[in-house]
Amino acid sequence: MIKQQNVITSLTSLADDDNFQNRNKEAGSFVRNRKLPFQTVVGMILRMVKNSIQIACNWLGTFMNTEPASKQAFSQARQKISYTAFQEMHADGLRVIYSTDPKDGLWKGYRLIAADGSTLRLPESEELAKEFGRWGTREDVAMSPPMARISEYTDMTTKLVLSGRIAPCKISEEELAKEQLSEVVLLMRKYDQKKLLFVYDRGYPSQEFIQQHLDLGVDFLFRMPKNFNREIKKIYESREAESFLFVEEWPMLRVLQFDLSSGEHEILLTSLTDYNTFSKEELSSVYHGRWSSMEEGYKLQKVTMQMENFSGKTDIATFFCTQRT
Q1: Mapped to the 3 state alphabet, what secondary structure does 120-162 carry?
Q2: Which of 48, 161, 224, 244 has its CA 20 to 30 A from that of 283?
Q3: Are 245 and 308 in a shared domain?
């Protein structure tokens, strides 16, 4: 609770800062004392208003004991604030959290970070359809709504989103993850998070992506498709519970195999080769922990926070949802 209070205090101070406002607003705007000052508009956007904008403006007028602003006035004011304001506020929140207690939530000294992607249904708009594309439709559906691809890296313990991207739906989540990885590593090292373990589902592994982790000096835990390459296929066919993968120009990597209660066979590849420190059961538990941090995280965003229910119908409006690429 103390950390959350510290974050709120820091963000409130940031929103009140003249320099912050000047670099994140349209020149010449919010210069007079009106019904919708900069801080109020930012606060309303952060509340993610899902009911009528006018109802929200009426509530605000009652709360502040003033005549309520019109929804048109709010829409105009919202357009004068840059999406960079919310990126700065997100970065400031992370700074406070990780500076307060850098060791909170570590697993065996490691910061566990999971990646996953999803799709995002956007409001009907030709501008958004042109920018992000539409899914192919069934014969009985005339036209699908605009759709975007989203990708997030999340701290598995704190459930904090460290990096988010939104892109045209034709771009794969693997492409976005490759773009984000270096950014996340740099961010975590900035906050003195030196030991990082990245956790991925079986849609992510590729020789290029594994090499990227090795080049950055971070550890990883991938679920592997059984036909990933000839070596993995041989290990899969051997059914050895634990073995090592030797690939030219790579360090020795560890392969773990499990028969799941669902009847599926699970293959994990990791750079954590010390079996005395990291048992196969513990690593399996870490991998399955990504469900609550990523899958449930998207459920929270889409269902509880109604991330797909926003009123902006322009390209720039999507910046307020998550970072563009």
Answers
A1: EECCCCHHHHHHHCECCCCCCCCCCCEEEEEEEEEECCCCCEE
A2: 161
A3: yes
